[in-house]
Amino acid sequence: MVGNGATVHALVRGAAIASLGHAVRLVTLGPVLPVPGIDVRTRPLPRTALEGFAAFRSFVRDLRDFHPDLLHVHYAGGRLGSLALASGIKPLVVTVMGGDVQPEQLMGRAGALDHRTTRRLLQEADLLLAKSQALVTEIRRYGDYAGKTEVIHWGIDVARFEAKPDAGPAMRQKMGLGEGPLLLSPRILRPLYNVHLIVEAMPEILRQRPDVSLLISRHREDADYATKLRQRVSELGIEGSVRFIEPVAYDDMPGLLAATSVVVSVPFSDGLPQTLFECLAAGTPIVLGRLDAYGEMVEHEREVLLAKLDAPSIAEAVTRILNEDGLAPRLREAGRKRILETASLPEEARRVEALYRGVVERGRRGSPLGPRILDAMSLALRSGPS
Q: Given this structure, which CATH class describes domain 158-342?
């Protein structure tokens, strides 16, 4: 597998495949979160052309020395995608994540070489996995790949996130949190995720529930955006009710969700995020923005509440969950049923295993050398961890 080791996606999926009895190695660049069950190989992020060449050689060596039956890339783009393409290893499986094929999520940060990598990965893949039907539609903009595309939710290990009676109080004590209702913004702290709208909703939420606190994760924060958010919190006079927290370790997420009264996730573009799966599994009510992408998994008033992407709508949804008798338990029960039906990680891993066997049985097809040389050369012209 090739993927970003600083996020849980490839690591958790690799561990799920390994649990079925397969040997899995994740090859990546930069820092890696701890995960049991898989072999991880990484090296520092290259900052110069010379470092990039050295990283490429060691990267390909770590891939080839493993003698893999197939190569699975998580994210159809980025430098890791170029490295995987340059290795020439086949069969090639590519998981489309969302930001790779949804240009609005990139917010102008992708250049011509990034778009080339995405096109190359979609073309060269023997199998494409998309987390949602909405992403299948996005893939169509690049070409007709329907014959090799499958929808795999991946999902979550439901048992791992199942609420334990003492998990919430223990996490509150560990983090020094009070006893009032907790709101959580767990997504990346960048403009795409509209965290400022949650901040703008807080005065109305506090008017109705003065004991509420908002936790904002600093996960992969954009420094300028975070500074503006802190300034706005101060302008609104709600410093005592808003806390910016360090990124929470994956092992601590079940406890944090157990302590949380409402999760709020309102990006302006999204696929089917792990945050949604985690909340459904943990039984934590979640407010989502009104995006079509969520419709294949959840419905408004059934498993979640949907809000328009403005502060008054977000405030109304949050206060409904906090104040309306029976609403939170109803969402919790329906959400757990839904996640068990459609996004259980062990079941999805077995589906992926069967798809793996299919591409391996079809055999390896060659990868042209010329484009691979260009893939390797493009690495010297790009920077960053992805």
A: alpha beta
Cβ atoms 5, 40 nearer than 8 A: yes
How many whole angstroms from its chain centre is CA 185? 14
Q: Is 79's pLDDT higher than 90?
A: no
CA distances from 90 to 84, 97, 108, 216, 344 (A): 10, 21, 32, 42, 28
322 or 378: whose pLDDT is higher?
Answer: 322
Query: Spelled out in words, what is the top-level CATH class assigned to the domain 8-155+346-381?
Result: alpha beta
Pairing mode, strands 213-217 and 182-185: parallel
Q: What string of DSSP letters covers 10-49?
A: HHHHHHHHHTTT---EEE-SS-----TTSEEE--PPP-SH
State mean pLDDT over 330-340: 95
CA-to-CA distance for 168 and 160, rounded, in angstroms?
14
pLDDT digits (tens, 9 = 90+) for 265-299: 999 988 889 999 999 999 999 999 999 889 989 99
Euclidean distance between CA atoms 29 and 195, whole angstroms: 29
Residue 367 is predicted with a pLDDT of 73
CB 183 within 8 A of CB 213: yes
The answer to whether 314 and 198 are in contact (CB under 8 A) is yes
Name the residue among 286, 284, 280 with its Cα closest to residue 267.
Answer: 286
Quick one: how far is CA 132 from the chain centroid? 13
Please give the distance of CA 192 from its chain centroid, rounded to a whole number.
13
All CATH 3.40.50.2000 domain ranges in the chain, comma separated: 8-155+346-381, 158-342
pLDDT band, residue 386 (cuts 50/70/90): very low
- pLDDT tens figures, 89-98: 999 999 999 8
